[in-house]
Amino acid sequence: MARSPTTSDVFNAVAELQRRRILELLVDGEKSVNQIAEVLAFRQPQTSKHLNVLKEVGLVTVRSDAQQRLYRLNPEGIKQIYDWSKTFERHWNESLDRLEAYLEELQQQVQRKDNHEQP
Amino acid sequence: MARSPTTSDVFNAVAELQRRRILELLVDGEKSVNQIAEVLAFRQPQTSKHLNVLKEVGLVTVRSDAQQRLYRLNPEGIKQIYDWSKTFERHWNESLDRLEAYLEELQQQVQRKDNHEQP
DNA sequence: GACATATATTCTTATATAGGAATACACTAG
DNA sequence: CTAGTGTATTCCTATATAAGAATATATGTC
Questions:
Q1: Hey, how many other C-beta atoms are within 10 angstroms of the C-beta on B74?
Q2: Do A50 and A105 have their domain in common?
């Protein structure tokens, strides 16, 4: 089986850095394809393709103004990612966890050294 | 250019649903490869491969206990995703934005209808 | 209608999976 | 050392990009 399509969900869509950059840019408000392409130094067809992926997963919406297509951020999609990541929040907030992990790391390092020096 | 490797960053690593499921499972604490494989109904080699991807991007750590490899969640990696998505937080909190988007959507639908019925 | 501007689509290519199958490797018990 | 348990690795295949190049489509202007 191959990797899931980029349009299968928001996680796959934002895996691509260039698409995350587009979303970050759209925070300032709606922009045309050429505006996006210019700011991010993309070619126009690539920009259209990325925008189409973002549109398919609902991360942006489009409206037409003459020949232009004005793309706007739809933050609801990003909220899905936020909600998922937030379920792990208490784990990085617990400093005790961090300390445990650190000690564990040290133990492993010592163990590895022992294994190498006395095989 | 092909898609970025799954190991290039946390965003690419968690794009795969099965890897997100592994992370969710590890919230309960460290688990061995076979334990993970059993709970999620994966085959062992697939489990090892997914865990390796998660390890490479720093989303999990491993320690050895006899033949077993005990994988533990490293929440710092998920925090990267949380932090990124959180920068959009105010947008989905602004109900005004939502209203505007909704109106825009309606306008588009009306426009499309007009275009179809009077071409 | 002819031409310009803005955007989308098609085609091609190099690359990277994800899962299955088979096998190799690591460590333990006796 | 031999068998058993747990895990990692290799090989294979079908699939899916992402970017470049070329082209098609849509809309506005004159």
A1: 22
A2: no
Is the domain of A24 the same as that of A69? yes
B8-53 pLDDT, tens digit per residue, is: 999 999 999 999 999 999 999 999 999 999 999 999 999 999 999 9
Q: How far apart are the first and last CA of chain B?
A: 41
| Domain carrying residue A42 | 10-74
Please answer whether residues B19 and B50 qualify as being in contact, where contact means their C-beta atoms are separated by less than 8 angstroms. Answer: yes
Give the pair of three-digit tokens for residue B117.
């019925």
Number of domains in chain A: 2
Q: Which residues of B touch A27 (CB under 8 A)?
A: 87-88, 91
Q: Which two tokens stand for residue B28?
A: 């309960």
CATH number at residue B59: 1.10.10.10
Whether A4 is in a domain gets the answer no
Shortest-distance nucleotide from A44 CA to C1'? C7
Residues from chain B contacting residue A16 (CB–CB below 8 Å): 3-4
CA B85 to C1' C24, whole Å: 42
pLDDT value of position B92: 85
CA of A30 to C1' of D30 (A): 30
Closest nucleotide (C1' vs CA) to A47 is C7
